[in-house]
Amino acid sequence: MGILGAGKANGACSLLHAAGLGYGASLALDLPLAVRLLDTPWKEEPEDPDNLLGAVLDAWRGAGHPLPGEELHWAVISKIPPKQGLKSSSALCVAAFRALMEATDVTIDNAEIVNLSAVAQINANVSLTGSFDDTWACIEGGWKLIDINAEDPQSGVLLESPGPDTNEWDVTIMVSEPRLNPLSLEDFVPHQEDFIQSLNAIQEGNEMVAMTWNGRAMLGVTKKMSLRRVVNDAYMNGARAASISGSGNAVVIFTTSISPQTKQRVRTMLERIPNSEIIETKVIN
To answer: With CB atoms counted within 10 Å of each terminal CB, which end of the chain scores lower, N or C?
Structure first.
């Protein structure tokens, strides 16, 4: 088995869902994903129900770049739960394009990776907007406020920040059943006021408030009463921010690092929820 190229990326959580207003921001989290491009099949084919990796190859060829061979296979190792709103699709695209770059000695900048990732995700029907904000977070860390209607990914960056200090915050994530029902852009319209509050908070550099307002909006969009209870209980147990990430169903909770007992209270609360998994991680600045 020959390794033609390899690439890495990380997951992220939403600060502002881009489908709400046409502006989006996602914050990088230490949820690693690694891809290898091989000339023979790996022992285990990666789970890719949407054929996103096929869409990556199509986008790469469509941009005029060569392929490293006729028979190509993928190996994927990921700590990002799929279909939970933790940006697994964006991370997979980033890592796959980086593997193609290494395999072909073609160099493209991060903005072009974001652009090609948007093409792949839209063609694979895994994104409503192209996920520009998600993909930037999976590449560079921190967060960028993105105008999804800009002419290109670089000019669409309106604000950027390294994000909350990784040493000052603990991040606890609850994942439950995978997201099944797709959302439409019309689902977001009744909740624009909350999204506006989130956008205002991001412009003021207050990520925790932005997450809170985005969470309120997304609970309305998804109508997930069970997740509303999780978010409310997280605040009751001392969380500084709690929100659905992406379109769900992951709930991301921030607590201060100087109060480990708060993180433990939140974890104990989450452990009582059946059919759920708990992940503890950190921000990537």
So the answer is: N
The amino acid that residue 69 corresponds to is G
Instruction: Please determine, for residue 178, whether its predicted confidence score (pLDDT) is greater than 90.
Output: no
Dist CA 22 CA 150 (whole Å): 10
pTM score: 0.95
Cβ-Cβ contacts under 8 Å for 39 (sequence gap 6 or more): 1, 2, 4, 69, 71, 72, 73
Average pLDDT over residues 88-108: 98
**Which residues contact residue 187 at a Cβ distance below 8 angstroms, ignoring those fewer than 6 apart?**
221
What angle, 0 to 180 degrees and rounded to 10, lies between the N-to-C axes of helices 260-271 and 225-236? 150
- The CATH number that domain 169-281 falls under is 3.30.70.890
**Half-sphere exposure for 44 (CA within 13 Å, toward CB):** 5
Domain boundaries, the chain: 3-161, 169-281
